[in-house]
Amino acid sequence: MALNGPQPEACSSHSQSPLLERSTVAGAQDHEGLPAKRATSGGWRSAYFIIGSEVGERSAYSGIEANLINYLTGPWGQSTAMAAKNVNTWFGTTTLLPLLGAFVADSYMGRYRTILIASLLYILALGLLTMSATLSTPYPLDFQQTQKIMPSSPPQLQVILFFLSLYLVAVAESGHKPCTQAFGADQFDGKDPKESKAKSSYFNWLNFSLSIGLSVGAVTLSYIQDNLNWVLGFGIPCIILVMALLIFLAGTKTYRYSTVRREENNAFARISKVFVEAARNWRLSSSSEKDIEEGVQETLSHQCSPQFKFLNKALLGPKFSEEGGNASSIDEVEEAKAILRLFPIWSTCLIYATVLAQSSTFFIKQGTTMDRSIGAGFDVPSASLKSIIPITSVLFIPIYDLVFVPIATIFTRNPSGITMLQRVGIGMFMSTISMAIAALVEMKRLKIAQEHGLVDIPNAIIPMGIWWLVPQYVLFGLSFVFAFIGLQEFFYDQVPNELRSIGISLSISISGVGSLLSSFLIYFLEKITGGEGQESWFNDNLNNAHLDYFYWLLFGLNALGLVTYTHFASSYIYNRRGVMSSRIYLV
Q: How far, in Å, CA of 169 to CA of 165, rounded?
């Protein structure tokens, strides 16, 4: 198989007949290195394999992530604040490393091979994680609570092996998650009207399927971990991932492999050169700046965006600068501007991600203190409530794609119903409302604990149904459909073609930085509120803590973030596909 790059004959599109050009996909090849045929490659026939593989991966991942805080506070005996910080730090690392994995894939290895290597490393990591659980087989969480068994510190070897395997999962995720999602989108030709329409729905239906995987994994695996044992709870995800890899490999002969490459250098080098040349020409005379304006107007003024004009100085060649250097072309400058325009959007979404991080930590710990019984002798695992987020997504995504978009299109005349940034803004608003509801529910939980004299009893079950937490989880699910999927599509669409794995990684990294910010906030607030004999907001005894204060703080920060986001989103200039194609220099 020729999966690294096209064969020489695949690149010479000028020699192809018009009929061949219509039957093949420009910039793509098949598994043998020949021009990819539209009728036998790509499209949904390939996307099904990729989505199926991703569903397996997400199920395995949720089996680890959803119940991790209960593993650390239960069998391992960590404090609530320490466990929350460990979970947030790991999750932040997991969602930041894809920037590195995407760089390797886009610049050197290609997405297909990166996915293969990442999958094998992932399987190894889950195998080691399962092995770490066998070193000491703690009692299930529910058994500990009912039998009053106190958790003990795990052996040092288990600690080392556990965290080694956990962060190996993060490394594997860095190559798997961004490349799989981008590789799936690569199966649709954006220049073909029919495939372009299908591509616009790809991210919706991808996340629809992933939500099913997440919900199934969170419910079934957290139940096994809480009620049976952790060895089985970690071992099953390893088996699932092996099956996911086999599904991905089964579609190898149907995939389209991108052949888009720049002759001179890769996208990172081009964009870096723009900033270097602009800095080199920073102190040019006003007459030189006038030459830039006149040169742009006389050549491709309609292609130069008005933002970040300081980067236009990179268009000037050696004759304008005493320091020498090589001029950048207009399309290279526009690429750099397109990347720079993304960062205000990226940064103003960080608080939103900090809010979402609570669903994996404090929401779950709240649930462990509430009445979780259904019928006689069956308790709902608190971590399983996180499955409400993907279940909500599963139910709402078809409504969004099949009902909301067509109705919105009538009013906006936008084929997607609303713009990508409008979609994100709606999701951020929903997450803000969710935090207000979470704070009110926590205030009620604390009031009931006080009324029943349970404040000073750490392991007491509050006579308040766990279902009170459902509304905040549902709003998180709706927020995911609007904001998270919108961010995926936005960053994939707005980066240069060669950097689309990086684009996906940028959207993922928002969650990573948000989790790290959550960890920092917890550390900072614990120091402030827990000093001089005071009870910390994050007291191990949640009945004597004040998570409600923390939730109100996040509500205020998220509202402020939404206002800031709206300001930048309203002035954002979308990257126009096909514009960045000229090779004109002002030398």
A: 6
* Alpha-helical regions (H) of 281-419: 286-299, 330-348, 350-356, 362-368, 388-399, 405-412
With the C-alpha atoms ordered 575, 581, 582, 586, is the resulting torsion angle positive or negative?
positive
Q: Which two tokens stand for residue 325?
A: 């250097």
Structure tokens at 42: 């790509």
Q: CA end-to-end span of the chain, whole Å?
A: 44
Residue 26 has phi, psi (to 5 degrees) of -65, 135
- Helical axes 193-227 vs 156-185, angle rounded to 10°: 160
pLDDT tier at 508 (50, 70, 90 boundaries)? confident
Q: In angstroms, rounded to a whole number, what is the distance separating the alpha carbons of residues 220 and 228?
A: 11
Alpha carbons 172 and 176: distance in angstroms, whole number: 6
Q: Estimate the crossing angle of helix 111-134 against helix 43-65, to 10 degrees.
A: 30
Helices 485-494 and 420-451 sit at what angle, rounded to 10 degrees? 150
pTM assigned to the model: 0.71
Q: What is the mean pLDDT of the chain?
A: 80
Bridging pattern class, strands 24-29 and 35-37: antiparallel
In sequence order, the 6+-apart residues with CB closer than 8 A to the CB of 18 are none
Q: At what angle do helices 500-529 and 330-348 cross, to 10 degrees?
A: 30
Identify the DSSP state of 37: E
